[in-house]
Amino acid sequence: MREDALLFLVVFAIWIALAVVYATVPMFAMPGYATVWGWGALVFLALAGLTIFARWRGGSRRGKRTADRDDKSGAVHER
Amino acid sequence: MSASALVDGLARLPDEDKRLLKIAFAAALGALFAGVVLGAMTAAARAGFFDPGPVLGYRSMTAHAVSIFFYWLYFSQAGLLLVLATAYAVPSHGIAWRPLAWAGFALMLAGFGASAHGVWTGVPLLYDAPPELGLQPSASLVSFYGGYLLLAAGLFCVATTGVVTAIRPLANGEQTEWPVVSFASTAWAGLLMVSAIAAVNVFLPAALWAMGLRPMPADHATGWHILFHNLHYLPLMATVLMWYVLIETLTGVKSIFGPRFSKIVFASYLVFVPPTSLYHMFLEPNLAQSVRVLGSLLSLFISVPTVTVFLVIVASLEVHARSAGARGLFGWIGLLPWANPAMSAIGMAVVNLAVGGALAFVLIQEKLAPLLSDTFFVPGYFHFLTVGTVTLTFLAALVYVLPPLTGRPIWRPALLRRLPYLVTAGLALFGVAGVAAGYVGVPRRVLDITYGGAAPTVWMVLMVGVGTGGLLMAAALTLHVLALAANLLPAPARRAIGVELPAVRWEGIALAPTRAWTGPLAVVVLLGLMVGFTALAFEVMRALPVGAVGSAAH
């Protein structure tokens, strides 16, 4: 699971680096390229963020469900 | 009960999602049908079989390319994305943010209508739609560019729902590990979103010009090159992902290299997209020489992800087949379920990808690009990719996707399994004649190439081959489309689940240590083809009695 977000972050890093090159290096000066790869980098940054968030939220939900089950089974034992 | 996660997952989808997907695939097949008919007309006109006149001829050529390259490929990709995102998540939950998915497909349908209206009522711009061809703003041009913008907006909506659908089980704690297919679908959806942005980047300024709100954009060609580069990669990424899914469905085989490596390989598509894009600029006269050299070097990496996925799939299949008793260097290939229409389509797709890929490497070389980009070499080679590889793969996917959606078995699988061979036969004639025509200088996008009798005789001979191959390919594709569309017709439903197409089951087999040589040998053959086609290009063009200077049309 960790590699999912990491892979999207690698894509983000490469795309944003290229966008900066296209925007700033005179030899490559192609603003259209910088715009598309720059926005694209943000898309993959968002996907990495979503993946991390989903993992965190899923983990807490699983933990909550386990705790609820433990509570119920504890209540049964107490009874 | 089927052993396939894909088929089982689709069968469990809510009815409303099945309805949405059926509409998406009906639209996809409709766009393909229209594009094939118009393509047959164009091929026949190019061969001199009939004379449609310039207006109808260029409208047919434009509508053919727009229908297939944009609407067939993107209706089918949008539908297949949602199929994979839902089937490998928690299928009973269905598509997340369903109204957004409906809105996305509605926008795409509106785009198809607007683009068609623009083509048939105004100046046909060809599919890259350079504003200078339109000469002056008009309502038809607004409609044409507006169609592309609606398509982009729709794709963005559908891709968003695909991402949310694939990621929702993780966030709900229903999946602890993300399946490879869910990861790859999300990566694919990301690239679809970027391509939608690239489409807006190039077509919004043109649309504003067509409305009379701004001057004609001066950098349309650059914007088109970026979009066009993405439009090369997107369908190929979708194709190899469908191979990955379908091979598991057909044989039960998963990658022997493990899920982590598969994710890295699918992510590598995204890593290689931007750096390899420079070769599209080779025809720009102001491009610095150092950038040309760098672009040439980087273009060599363009096929790395596709070849890697191919090696992973072939090695995994070969190792399983040998463990199941296959003998001889290629004996394992005979054990594959060739009686299954999806298998024959994938088999032909692989062959066509090798030929088309090798020819693509001829075109993206800096010294050859200016000589070949305005010739019939271009349609000659890229039909191996768009039709022979991507279209055959998507049609193979529909063989498995449609029955669980409609509840009906696929129509005449025994006929269907032969059609990919017929498509490839027509394509081979079209492509070989077309590439040869390009080598000897036949221009592309020119309907009448007789030049008042001054053109070399060999030009028309080769174009007759193009026309004949094109008509054969179109006939086989039309039959293929109609056979699949029959599954969508309203009729008394018979449950398809349990009606199994021929397959083998190699999952769970004890793997024996073995060598798998087929993949590496195939790569050696591919390299040989690339060298051979390049040498042939130099030899043929060196013998031509004319010089040529390219323009920025590719």
Please, could you describe this protein's structure?
The complex is a heterodimer of chains A (79) and B (554). With 79 residues, chain A is an all-alpha fold. Chain A has one domain. Chain A has helices at residues 2-24, 31-78. The mean pLDDT of chain A is 86. The termini of chain B are far apart. Chain B is an all-alpha fold. Chain B has a single domain, classed as Cytochrome C Oxidase, Chain A (Up-down Bundle), CATH 1.20.210.10. In chain B, helix 3 crosses helix 15 (377-406), helix 4 (98-121) runs antiparallel to helix 6 and helix 8 runs parallel beside helix 11. The model of chain B has no long low-confidence stretch (mean pLDDT 91). Chain B is built from 19 helices and no strands. Chain B is globular, with a radius of gyration of 23 Å. The longest helix of chain B is centred in the N-terminal third of the chain and has 35 residues, at 53-87.
Give the structure's gist in a few sentences.
The complex is a heterodimer of chains A (about 80) and B (about 550). With about 80 residues, chain A is mainly alpha-helical.
Name some characteristics of this structure.
heterodimer, A: 79 residues, mainly alpha, 2 helices, B: 554 residues, Cytochrome C Oxidase, Chain A, 19 helices, globular
CATH topology of chain B: Cytochrome C Oxidase, Chain A
* Mean of pLDDT of chain B: 91
Largest sheet of chain A, in brief, is: none
Number of β-strand runs of chain B = 0
Low-confidence stretches of chain B: none
Largest pleated sheet of chain B: none
Distance between the termini of chain B: 49 Å
Distance between the termini of chain A: 40 Å
CATH architecture of chain B: Up-down Bundle
**Count of alpha and pi helical runs of chain A:** 2
Task: Report strand % of chain B.
Answer: under 5%
Number of domains of chain B: 1
Count the strands of chain A?
A: 0
